[in-house]
Structures
1.
Amino acid sequence: MADTNTLKFGNHDYPVMSGSVGPQVVDIRKLYNETGMFTYDPGFTSTASCESALTYIDGDEGILLHRGYPIGQLAEQSSFMEVSYLLLNGELPSKGELDEFTHTITRHTMLHEQLATFYRGFRRDAHPMAIMCGVVGALSAFYHDSTDINDPHQRMIASHRLIAKMPTIAAMAYKYSVGQPFLYPDNSLSYTGNFLRMTFGVPAEPYEVNPIVERALDRIFILHADHEQNASTSTVRLAGSSGANPFACIAAGIACLWGPAHGGANEAALNMLREIGTPDRIPEFIARAKDKNDPFRLMGFGHRVYKNYDPRATVMQQTVREVFDALKVSDPVFEVALQLEHMALNDPYFVEKKLFPNVDFYSGVILSAIGFPTTMFTALFALARTVGWVAQWNEMISDPAQKIGRPRQLYTGPTQRDYTAIGQR
Ligand code: CMC
């Protein structure tokens, strides 16, 4: 919404807009036409790329709200299905609405049977994220009745399908890697319980879902559901801005999420904690993280937006204890994590740069205790983030101000020159 405030640049005034909360933004859409200049902002550190009513983050205060509700309250009191409904529809559901939504998602969990053969084209040691990129992108070849992005009904069906099928796709990627048969979904189980069974169950015997593990994983899904305009969400929006179908857009988001600076950080964080191994080696790794000549960084530390404790990390730390107690696990890696956090938070380098543990610092420890191999961690992140991606994608398509995303550049290459024949170079 436009304010009466303006920012003067040269002879031109640019409107200053206010959201419901958070920093104001300067509307520079006319800047190029009026001044012939672009703005320069690699990494979009000062650029709002869209209007959004989904998620709000105050990085200095460590606040994360979905549709206004604090993440801590959602993680403690809600369920992933309810948070998914909230993100997609804007309000918490009534009991009837939640039952109906859960029923719809549950009935979309099966995959087209032919997709099972698609998996067999991959090597057994393929990274699950490679499989997820391929299989999710391929969904558009199987579900033609939900690819018309101008039809809100088809958009909603595509959204439900993506949320529902992601656990099946991720579990099948795991099963394929260990050489076990794929398990069909069981509609009597919850969204998360079903995923646990499809991952760890075998056809030879019944699988009993551990309610504490189910609750912990559901909470991890809530914590990863959305995070405003992060790299993968912006990728989904950019891909979608050209009119690409929803399955292709989500596959693009999965590809972006895979990177170690984004979703791959939980895998990298656990690998790092295992490499450290014992608390006495922590100072050596802290010294490396501070050394400008060493590319090593403390994985699971620091965040583009949070300059305070990531509120999701607080919930994660509590959840580690619950899962360890329930499964009677004791993993030295948790002790290393706690001590590393303590030492880093008392080190001036990390204090001055406002580097705090992020959501990924503890999530790997929990997922490993549950039994997931590290390569599955980012696949789980993708599973949970799918609802955020589709909600943001739907919001973008419904936005009348939406245009194809097309950034400009500061060109520093050669100016025009004449082609020379190969023998004369
Ligand atoms: N260890 C050591 N130093 C760090 C770290 C770290 N983990 N993170 C940032 N720094 C330093 C960095 O060297 C730089 O120092 P200087 O100003 O002297 O050059 C300063 O802090 C600012 O870093 P930056 O890279 O400019 O900050 P950014 O906002 O571009 O990067 C980040 C954010 C998350 C990519 C970065 O903190 C990082 O690489 N962290 C490790 C990877 C990680 O845990 N990623 C998960 C993010 S949370 C999950 C998600 O939402 O996807």
Note: The first strand starts at residue 2 and ends at 9.
2.
Amino acid sequence: MSAIDSLPPLREVIATHQLSAQKSLGQNFLLDLNLTAKIARKAGDLSGCDVLEIGPGPGGLTRGLLAEGARRVLAVEKDPRCMPALEEIAAAYPGQLHVINGDALEVNPLEFLTPPVRVAANLPYNVGTELLVRWLTPKEWPPFWQSLTLMFQKEVAERIVAEPGSKAYGRLALLSQWRADAQIVLHLPPGAFTPPPKVNSAVVHLTALTEPRYPADAATLSRVVAAAFNQRRKMLRSSLKSVSPEIEDHLNAAGIPPTERAEQVGLEAFCALARSLKKA
Ligand code: SAM
């Protein structure tokens, strides 16, 4: 019998530990272990990798990651009620699961991880977006992670993989595609979760590039695209005025017509603009 078979079904775990879903923590659990194994496989070859899992909850995806051969899983969960359920999994996989009870936006897990590291998470969407932007914008590159496999609301997933000219194109697409290859690898209906959320979901897999596609300073690029898409219907010479009083000169230096709108401008041009601004 494998370790995963020795563990009770997740519905039983939830009943035993009284893990009624809390809306404030975005708790929509995955209880189908075939599905969590499928998501774990989308994270790539886990053998020989440490996996950072954010928001394990009762541990459905955690079990999948361990069963798919992860060397170690470091799981960061905010809800203390989930700790006993996660300890049961840790006991079934001795030395392979380390759990931190804390807020992923505040905990620094790096000291517990040995490269290569992959990240997997089914998180509340607001926390997921905030972490994704942090993981994509460290000053130095390559980052601590090799890949990110993250569940999002379908519309957010579409924003990550969007092309210029589309409605979904914006800051998330630019930051993701600047330093990573990003793909939607799985769609999930509300019924896949307990309780079902009101929205459809999708899993995005991002693989870190060894070098960004074009040189740029991460903080400057992040600031420019945030300002540009904050007022996406305006011409860039006006939406970016707050970034620099000489914005027209910088746009011209980057080869971008100052009358252009953000959604028409590609990644290469935004990076050229960030370089011109940084130089100044
Ligand atoms: N991964 C589990 C699954 O797939 O069934 C749970 C998913 S549920 C959508 C999100 C989980 O993230 C919950 O267990 C919740 O308590 C946890 N969570 C919410 N905010 C968090 C934060 N800031 N840091 C760490 N965990 C968080």
Note: The pocket of S-adenosylmethionine is lined by residues 25-30, 54-57, 60-61, 76-79, 82, 103-105, 122-124, 127 (CB under 6 Å).
